[in-house]
Amino acid sequence: MSEASKDQYYVPHLAQWPIVGSIGLTVTFLGAIQALNSETSITPWMMFVGIGILLWMMFGWFGDVIKESEEKLYNTQVDTSFRMGMIWFIFSEVMFFAAFFGALFYARTFSVPWLGGEGTGLATNEVLYPGYEGVWPTNGPGELNGRFEIIDPYHLPLVNTMLLLASSVTITIAHHALRANQRSQTIFWLIATVVLGAVFIFFQAEEYVLAYQEFNLKLNSGIYGSTFFMLTGFHGFHVTLGAIMIAIITVRVIKGHFKPESHFGFEAVAWYWHFVDVVWLGLFIFVYIL
Amino acid sequence: MKKAQMKFMMLITGLLASSMAAAEYGLNLRKGVTDFSETAYEMHTFTLWICIVIGVLVFGAMIVSIFAHRKSKGYKPEQFSHSTVAEVIWTVIPILILVVIAIPATKALIQMENPTDEQGKRMKMDMTIKVTGYQWKWKYDYMDEGISFLSTLAQEHNIARQKGSGIDVNTIENYLLEVDKPLVIPVDTNIRFLLTADDVIHAWWVPDFGWKRDAIPGYINEAWTNVKTPGTYRGQCAELCGKDHGFMPIVVEAVSKAEYARWVADQKGEQAVEAEMVQTEWTKAQLMDKGEEVFNAQCATCHQATGAGMPPAFPALAGSEFVNGPAADQINLVLNGKAGTAMQAFGNILSDTDIAAAITYTRNSFGNTAGDVVQPATVKSMKQ
Amino acid sequence: MSQDITPNEMNHAEVAHGHDHHDHDHKPKGFVKRWLMTTNHKDIGTLYLIFAFAMFIIGGAMAMIIRLELFQPGLQFVEPDFFNQMTTMHALIMVFGAVMPAFVGLANWMIPLMIGAPDMALPRMNNWSFWILPFAFTMLLSTLFMPGGAPAGGWTMYPPLVLQGGHNVGFLVFAVHMMGISSIMGAINVIATIMNMRAPNVGYLNMPLFVWTWLITAFLLIAVMPVLAGAVTMLLTDRYFDTSFFSAAGGGDPVLFQHIFWFFGHPEVYIMILPAFGIVSEIIPTFARKPLFGYVSMVYATAAIAFLSFIVWAHHMFSVGMPLGGELYFMYATMMIAVPTGVKIFNWVATMWKGSMTFETPMLFSLAFVILFTIGGFSGVMMALAPVDLQYHDTYFIVAHFHYVLVTGAVFGIIAGAYYWLPKWSGHMYNERLGKIHFWWSTISVNVLFFPQHFLGLAGMPRRIPDYSTQFAEFNMWSSIGGFAFGLAQVFFIYVVWKTVKGGEKATAEVWPGAKGLEWTVPSPAPHHTFEEFGPVDLDKMAHGKDH
Ligand code: HEA
Ligand code: HEA
Ligand code: CUA
Ligand SMILES: [Cu+2]
């Protein structure tokens, strides 16, 4: 605070992108609803239009920000605002995942054991589900979608863990390189990170195919399938976003953006990547191993 | 104009009548008829008084200040803004008060959840009743006696409560708190309730017993009671469960043990007759009569007495291709319901005779012309 | 009252340190540019406030339908399903459309002014936070006109019931997502503004309490809105993709939803009251002409309430059949909230004590707030007692409780703030006589509206029912009459505000003689841009500037 610059805080004057974003968001969601609600399965074309609008908005908006940044309109205080924005945004993401982890923990410590007759579930089990054991993994007393097998944590998931951990290292190396103004090094390590991320996503897709085709483990395989796919799915989605973001900053580095002493965009993406990484560790332990 | 005046007069009379009816009850929580409800009542009263005292002190200080320390009286403001002593006092005293309230609350809660008798031994339950909530009725299973039946809003009330029924509800005794068949329990008996539901969450609540407990689909909740005084106790479903949540009352008749034994014997007799009837061949007229009764009691909340339904949520049965189609499909649907919709699996709810009658009725009413008759025995055979 | 306002001679320029304000009123020209694309915190604040008020009217109109149907026993006007739609939509609109946006609007307007910032930290995002809302609520309200109607499962959206909603489930879920995105971005902006944009010599313990309460509220928002998003996402997948989070057959549990919902929901109710605490903490010292008593303990109490709000959620679920240990824990934790809240009440009373009070409209609303919120708090503590809550739960006792804390708490707080700052926004004094009429009319009618509901609940009337046993008729009638009167009082409020905006006595910069706070150092109406240059402010002008 105290060493804040004496310059004026840059307040942009016309914001044309937010309203585009609102329209994009609305169209996306309406498209999704339309597709979900239709009796016959239709292609969610409207959703894609919405996503298109959102992408347009993002390119425009971020483009403006980048332009302003390159024009040196931002002082360190503006930079701090951006940082705080990103930090709290990541915190909100943490809480989003917390809801799903909470569901997983609840199912494992309460609902499934209760259905199996533990604790307050004695009568539930005796009267409604005699014979149901309530051991994890489970698709519930209704055995929804039939028997399934689970993914062995020490194959693909372990590889994926290694990949993501490695990618955290590579992006850190890239960061150091950027600070030392070694731009080609930066670019190299950034590309390495994107590649690691992409391979991760590829393996994840592989794993889903395996689960669906070999193991009969599906989204509708009771609570195990629900928590497994929702947690890993949202995580995979975040990895995808993160990888795209890293790809974009790679391009920006190639274009000569970012200074050794000021490169908020880079850092924001790096934080995000670390966050995605930490979530994965949680998944690896609580979804796969335990 | 005339009509409006009439309506206004009716309104005023209605208001007068209702204020008279209101005189029957007090402003406070009721004491109820179980140990637990009395404890709850006492704790309620105790806490209420504590709050009133705190309120009088706090608001009193405010009011004094408002009247004495005002500018219009020329009062000069002081400028103090701290007092550690005061702050400690008004932090510690509320804590102490809360501790005082928490102690009896803890005891009462333990007695509800883990009841013990005078010797501190786990209380023995004398009988078990399973309560299942459905949209919008209750089913009671006497687990030890093998008696089971449904309990729905009494027909007279159901007619009167329809919008535009033209019936003055003030003329109906215990409006909305009457069922076709009440739950009967013996007094001075520890009764264990197993509560569950088949579609959405309901909550079983009889205020005089002192508790409500949710009936959750797929889980069983336990609760217990021991009613001391014979009488009729009324309650309602207390968890939003869809459009007719306000119309699924509970009536419990607590009777002496001897009377209860007689009642049980009667029920068993009736059930034997029922079982007999499944085997007999019914005539169409018999089925249609019975069917109308069952349909109006069980199906009309959704499909309407006219069979018009309330699309899109509840399909019309009148003119429905499905209903005019093969009987077996319809029997199947009514027996097993349709998962994820309000259409319940009536196989667990109604007797085979009732189902057969209701289906026959739907296939030959509202202009439907399937023409065939569904016999109870057919339904029974399709159950397996 | 307004006679004793002396023109304020002080030139704000001396506060803003040599910064001159002559030409800076360059508001963008043209409606679209001015309002759709604005980045100005004051304009966005205005948009939020107008939107919130519009939603209050719509939500209020739905409440009027509820009260109309409940006016007497028997179904007169609406079908039960429509009634449930009204209850559900009324609550969703009031909570997410009226109260929360109103607070964000106040935050937008006042926080930069109070801490000497030129604008919000992220002005473009600020615009987006707002402009998501009209879309979200259009989407939600549109379900009313669809076959099958609007969501009718209660604002708590409990499965499996809510999943029976047919096509509206998707609309509900995505509308909630949009509200969540909006709230999260709004909250991020508030936090970044408060942490990063304070004038260089304004420390955390110089900040006005409104800013403090909002800082903590913003934290709560960022922590719990995503949890709500997670909860409704699970609803969506249970409804459309056959997941089993909330279905026992697959090993899930309907009660799981309630845990997640209330993990959001309980902090949510404090989100709706903490900023009101802040507003009242600004107003009472001004009209008691005495510094706020126990500033630091107010801050700590707010933080304590926020902390506790995370660990008490299952007090909404005493009847779901939790294990005994859980019930006891949640009972104790909930009771503890009375302690920090009590500290706040006592501090307000101590602030009034030996002050020199006058009773302008904002002060009247604040005094009513203190008393009526406390009444709501008392019923809260009573419900915290699990064994007795087995009686209270899901009855009108609860409806009475939460309307006391929400209407005479949150809404009264907002109205008090509106009267307090309206002269700063509009440059005109509101008409004090009309304000007082509005106050007495509202306060009397709101008690006629909600006090009898305590009795109804105790006598055994469940909530969310369109029709009731005749024994409940009389109090329902009173409640409805109070409701209509209270509704009309708010129509009157529109008139008062409108009149003030259109004209009226010119307000001075200080507006309230002796009022402390930087907002009173800039002219009224506040110019489009304030504190454009980043520099120290005069701490003497701040309520807590020299205190610590
Ligand atoms: C602004 C919103 C707001 C606020 C501030 C509160 C504040 C409190 N609420 Fe409330 N509550 C709601 C909004 C709010 N609530 C809503 C919307 C619902 C219903 C949701 C639904 O089901 O739809 C609800 C429901 C609700 C329940 C669930 C009831 C049920 O469904 O069975 C409970 C139970 O414990 C509860 C408790 C409390 C408590 C203990 C406080 C405390 O914070 C109150 C503390 C304040 C005081 C106690 C007064 C001042 C203190 C003193 C003067 C000190 C001395 C006092 C003592 C020692 C007693 N609330
Ligand atoms: C901040 C939140 C908030 C606010 C401000 C209000 C305000 C009001 N509420 Fe609200 N209410 C809730 C939050 C809120 N409520 C919640 C969370 C629920 C629970 C929902 C659930 O169970 O799921 C609920 C439920 C609820 C019920 C219970 C419904 C039921 O259980 O079935 C009732 C019944 O009386 C009610 C009444 C009112 C009234 C009369 C007002 C009044 O204060 C409104 C006053 C405002 C106006 C009236 C608008 C202004 C004027 C006009 C529109 C002009 C027309 C005027 C006339 C014709 C007179 N509310
Ligand atoms: Cu059943 Cu409400
Ligand atoms: Cu709560």
How would the global form of chain A be characterised? globular
What's the number of domains of chain C? 1
User: How would you characterize the largest beta sheet of chain A?
Assistant: none
The CATH architecture of chain C can be given as: Up-down Bundle
Q: In one word, what is the shape of chain C? A: globular
End-to-end distance of chain C: 33 Å
Count helical runs of chain A. 8
Number of strands of chain C: 0
Helical content band of chain C: 55-70%
- Quaternary state reads heterotrimer
What is the H-and-E element order of chain C?
A: HHHHHHHHHHHHHHHH
Structural class of chain A: mainly alpha
Percent of residues of chain C in beta strands?
under 5%
Mean pLDDT of chain C: 90
Query: What ligands can be seen in this structure?
Result: heme-A, dinuclear copper ion, copper (II) ion
Query: What is the CATH class of chain C?
Result: Mainly Alpha
How big a fraction of the residues of chain A is strand?
A: under 5%
The CATH C-level class name of the largest domain in chain A: Mainly Alpha
CATH architecture of the largest domain in chain A: Up-down Bundle
Query: Compute the gyration radius of chain C: what is it?
Result: 23 Å
Report the order of strands and helices of chain A.
Answer: HHHHHHHH
3D structure, described in words:
The complex is a heterotrimer of chains A (290), B (384) and C (548). Chain A has 290 residues and is mostly helical. Chain A folds into two domains: 1-74, Orthogonal Bundle (Helix Hairpins); 76-289, Cytochrome c oxidase, subunit III, four-helix bundle (Four Helix Bundle (Hemerythrin (Met), subunit A), Up-down Bundle), CATH 1.20.120. Chain A has eight helices and no strands. Chain A has helices spanning 17-37, 45-70, 76-115, 122-128, 156-179, 183-213, 222-254, 264-289. The longest helix of chain A is centred in the first third of the chain and has 40 residues, at 76-115. Chain B has 384 residues and is α+β, with helices and mostly antiparallel strands. Chain B has three domains: 2-74 and 82-113, no CATH class; 127-275, Cupredoxins -  blue copper proteins (Immunoglobulin-like, Sandwich), CATH 2.60.40.420; 281-383, Cytochrome c-like domain (Cytochrome Bc1 Complex, Chain D, domain 2). Chain B has ten helices and ten strands. In chain B, strand 2 (137-142) and strand 3 form a beta hairpin. In chain B, helix 6 (284-303) packs across helix 9. The longest helix of chain B is centred in the first third of the chain and has 34 residues, at 35-68. The model of chain B is unreliable at 13-24 (pLDDT under 50). Chain C has one domain: Up-down Bundle (Cytochrome C Oxidase, Chain A), CATH 1.20.210. In chain C, 64% of the residues lie in helices and 0% in strands. Chain C is built from 16 helices and no strands. In chain C, helix 2 (41-69) packs antiparallel against helix 16 (473-502). Chain C is globular. The interface between A and B is small, with 8 and 7 residues. The complex binds heme-A (2 copies), dinuclear copper ion and copper (II) ion. Residues 56-57, 60-61, 63-64, 66-67, 87-88, 90-91, 94-95, 99, 154-156, 399, 403, 406-407, 410-411, 449, 463-464, 483-484, 486-488, 490-491 of chain C line the site of one heme-A (HEA). One heme-A (HEA) sits between chains C (156, 269, 272-273, 315-316, 334, 337-338, 341-342, 345, 374, 377-378, 380-381, 383-384, 389, 392-393, 398, 401-402, 405-406, 409-410) and B (51, 54, 58, 94, 97-98).
